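Shipment paperwork, digital attachment
Item: protein structure file
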Amino acid sequence: SVSRILLISVLVIMLLGVLGLGGMVVYKQFPGYWMARAEKQIDAENYKEATTTLKKLLAKDPKNADAMLLLVDVIRDGAEKEGRSPSYRANREAVGWLAKAAELRPDDMELQRRMLRVYIMVGEYGKAVPIAQEVVKSDPVSADAHIVLTAHAVEQKNRSKAESLFRQFENNEIATQRVFETLQLQFKYYVNMDDTEAAEGVLSDAAER
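Attachment content:
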């Protein structure tokens, strides 16, 4: 009968609605949904919404390094849009997320070098030491790694280690990238060691450059 057909039709529509809703709920459990949503928000420069979306994703998937790296950029881009500094020093939350991503990808040397540079920018030399030790293994002339390791040796007043590292700075590639930072470290080192003559020698070297 007509009423029976109508009833069946209504039931079918209701079933399809339930299945569709259930499918959407399931879909929202996948990282791809949240990443796609965040990317749309980023394209529209809705950085606050994108930040919220990515944090929701990370609450569900706390080891998603891709989401963390995207969040780093979103935080800095959002700061710039609001007229604030996008620097890592001014956005320490971004540093935190970058560090978490770097921890999850220890073999990604490009990411490790990025983390190393950021730690130098924000003055976190202590946190940078373990990364510098790994970076220098794959990149023996990494100026960033040498700066961090030398600064650590100077801070620890490790005379033999510091002087060994200073000699390595004679490598032209390293010296060209970090010449004045090297001289500052040498000056600080000799002052700490109460070696006035050597400290004055560093000042003279700096003046000649």
